[in-house]
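Class prep. Sample record?

___
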Amino acid sequence: MPDSRLKASVIISTHNGATRILKTLFSLTKQTMKDFEIIVVDNASTDNTKEVVQGAKKDIACLQYVFEPNLGISAARNKGFQISKGEVILFMDDDEIASPGWVHEHVKVYGSNKNIDAIGGRIILKWTSLRPGWLPRKINRRMGCLNLGVHARPMIFPEYPFGGNMSFRRNIFKQLKGFSLTFGIKGCGLMGNEEKEIFFRLNQLNPRHIVQYSPEAYVHHTINAKRLSQKNIIMRNFYQGVSDVLFTELTESPRRSRIRWLKRSLRGYVSVFQTFFPIFKFRIKKKETKLFMMQISCAYWLGYARECLKFCLINKNNKK
């Protein structure tokens, strides 16, 4: 029988999340499992997040509040782990709504197989307003959606869980020494790949580890109006290009030479031009979805090419 008595810690990082956090906390009060703690890490908020969370402690006995002055979701998650007590460490964001069995499902899966080191659950998008016609479904994943089907199975890297619904065994997360501070959103900064980087290191630590996909451990990810702006989505894709180059630089061995980075930069700029000119064709034909996909792709390759060129110049200066 799976061991459902394992104590768990739920860590929620929030930055100026006073208007969002209560819905997330309320969903955790409805869990079928009760033996867990909730840690809200206030990541340098300038709104009344502290007062909102402290007020919720009257009704949620297992709730803890801690302030992390160093801006960045990775720093905040690491801070939450430092004060946590659970053997299972769960992470979610301040715009997620947990299903009633969310904590129980994570704990149950660990109890069923001692070789499972981490778990990723399903993330379902929840729209607060009508989905815009220009928003293609192809980018649901970049909006935070994770759906690998209805059957549980191992996730083989480069597959990895998303930060809005993932967990680790305590001893494994401790061995990994937390998230890298190089990656992850920092306030309004849109750098990503913090999850990709830590699961890359987990794969290096023990290639035979199991990262389990558990569809029954699902959450709803709220998409508000601010995240639905075209500018926000385009900028997120630009910084995804930047983040992908940074991930390559830090994880490849041996590191790339200046010439190889220059070649990658040129390849990126070629991709920019290849996606830039069709934009005019789709604008004339008024195909909103295809037009926006071209804009997203163009933004990604601009970020990618710019960061490649940056590393090329850095390597040049280091050789002088």
In short: The domain at 8-228 is CATH 3.90.550.10 (Spore Coat Polysaccharide Biosynthesis Protein SpsA; Chain A).
